[in-house]
Amino acid sequence: MHNFWARINAVLTFFGTVAAALCVLVTLTDYVHQSNPQISLQLKGVKRLAPFRSKNDQAVLSMALDADLRSAFSWNTKQLFVFVQAEYETAENKINQVVLWDKIVRSKDEAVIKAPGLKHKYALIDRGQSLRGTPLTLSLVWNVMPKVGALFQQSRSFPVGSLPEEYVY
Amino acid sequence: MDFEGQKLAETLLYRLLIVFAAIGFVVGYAAGSFRLMVLINAAGLAATLLVVVPNWPFFNRNPFNWLPPLNPEDAAAGGGSSSTAGGASSGSSASRGSRAKR
What we know:
Chain B: This is Signal peptidase complex subunit 1. Chain B: Residues 75-102 are annotated as: Disordered. Chain B: It is a multi-pass membrane protein. Chain B: Keywords: Endoplasmic reticulum, Membrane, Transmembrane, Transmembrane helix. Chain A has one helix at residues 4-29; strands spanning 38-52, 56-68, 77-88, 96-105, 112-118, 124-125, 135-146, 152-162. Chain A is elongated and about 85 Å long. In chain A, strand 3 (77-88) and strand 4 form a beta hairpin. By secondary structure, chain A is of the alpha+beta class. Chain A is 15% helix and 49% strand. In chain A, 21% of the residues are buried. Chain B has a domain at 3-55. Helix content of chain B is 75%, strand content 0%. The longest helix of chain B has 29 residues, at 3-31. Chain B starts with a helix and ends with a helix. At the A-B interface, helix 1 of A face helix 1 and helix 2 of B.
């Protein structure tokens, strides 16, 4: 503290320490943040269920999504990565997860998603031919990207019944 | 900046930065605005730099009290005179002194 540069150094380095402590505190507030999103995700119909390149099954779904994710935003949220995921179980693999659609929600204003005719962005193709008659669960997953702190993920699942027993063309 | 001033500057910088950070956190959380917290902290940093870094007069209220200066020429002259006086007083003491010098 004896000269100009020593004092500048002391102020800036201590500010760094304080800023780091603030970041930890801000991260802790995300643990007490209450989020209660209103979500409805439905399977409207199966447009197509057919072999894909003769070795795999492909399903083309028609879905309806109505979600209000505004409450997922806390003061520390930068953006949400939202995606719809199909989950099912086969004899070969207990857990199958296929992402069908995604969206980057950058602000609270964009967090109200109304898609009565939600189409695939990515194809639902099974590894194998086990889609027929398989019970399907559609999940809406939102990955929260905070301004400071670790990413975390929350989701809500909707069992939507089984796929058709026979191929649909 | 004197010693008391340096101590004051250090105390001030700790307190100012912590107080601004605390205010920024509480206000930002209450308003739900991360940006507001960052702005309050930036203002706190600017204010702290302004208060602590320049050598303001209030950091110089306790000037140093240096001891009176020692004149090196006076000290050298005093030592030389005492040794010559000892040498002149008696021959035996002078020989003892010369042995000690080796």
